[in-house]
Amino acid sequence: NDIFITRFNKDGQKLWSKKYGTIYDDEGIDAVEATDGSIIVIGTTSYEKNRDISIMRLTENGNRIWLKHYQKQANDDNTVIPKKIIRLKDNNFVLALTQYDHMKKENIRLIKFDLYQNILLDREIFTRYPSEINDIKEYSDGKFIAVGYVKDTYNTDGLAMILDSNFILLTQEHYGQENYDVFNAVTIMHNSQAAIAGVHTNNDSQETNMWITKLNRDATMAQVSSSTNNFYEKLRDIFKVELKSKKIEIKKDLSINIIDSALYFEVGAYKLTSTQKSFLSRVSAKLFPFVYANKEDIQSLEINGHTSSEWGESNFTDTYLNNEKLSLNRSYETMSYLFREQKKAIQVWLTQALRGIGCSSSQHIEYNNIESKEKSRRVSFKIILK
């Protein structure tokens, strides 16, 4: 067996198909695109009683840049099985695996690595019962939600986990009845809740059905409708002047984006101009009292710094790192300026809720697939509900 990869354009037309493999049996599991257009592919190579993890990087045209095998000697098959790969906001990657121990019990293993094969973090998550991750997604604050299954001798339940940025387990929840129930995929919604798809087996039959559920940020079941729409309408009312004058836009995910060209940053700049300070003061005079008054429902307030994708003649690594530093500086300058303007009571609460995030160029603005470099040099705000 070999790994077979086909690339299509946005209209579904095939661009190319290529085969990759060794003299042994190779199987492709998942793939993800890096910000530079290259493709990271995970799979397995099986021989005798070993199954190695393979990680391969391809150009956007399918030419192999590098191939790395991670060998694991074992006395039985399926010792380590890759399940899912995702790209992170910082352009590193997380690989979710199933790790079998000597008792053939499934454990969860997560590996973070960069574009150049360097392992940044490798952690095994031990649980009381056999557990496996089928999908994982990253929140805007760097935490993760992972879904899969947990099982004992007679029962399998859907598993949802919340992990911090270092893969430390913060909380987990099990969902299902005394049958076979599994979570297969997760996506993070605009209001930071998670939509999950899986399989549920009826109590009175062996019939399996599609299972769709929605969870909150802490992995608890969403029992009532979110107050996001209520917050969205309140924000639109508070900032109706700024919306009408096209200074900002407000999205239903409770993000506030500056769209006035006079308020963007110049190339390489992060210090606030007098025009930016004046506008931000007017915004904060409305925004911060609002979030403080609704603090019981608010998890955090993010101030995100953004950049365009270029950086002179620098290579890919230096371009990313320089833009990441610049975006952090833009976030910090904005956050520190606004923080100093607040009353003591609001400042005390903000120390627990305010988040400054550097997004580099990962959220640059495009029109008709062409980057608007001017509009990408900005800061934005986002309210995250509990």
What does this structure look like?
The chain is an alpha+beta fold. It has two domains: 3-215, Neuraminidase (6 Propeller), CATH 2.120.10.10; 228-385, OmpA-like domain (60s Ribosomal Protein L30, Chain: A, 2-Layer Sandwich), CATH 3.30.1330.60. The protein contains six helices and 24 strands. The longest helix has 25 residues, at 316-340. It is globular, with a radius of gyration of 23 Å. The protein starts with a strand and ends with a strand.
Might you state the CATH topology name of the largest domain? Neuraminidase
Q: What's the gyration radius in Å? A: 23 Å
Query: What's the number of domains?
Result: 2
State the end-to-end distance.
47 Å
Named CATH architecture of the largest domain: 6 Propeller
Which class do the helix and strand fractions yield?
alpha+beta
Which stretches of 5+ consecutive residues score pLDDT under 50?
Answer: 73-77
- Give the overall average pLDDT: 88
Largest sheet: 5 strands, mixed
CATH top level of the largest domain is: Mainly Beta
Helix content: 10-25%
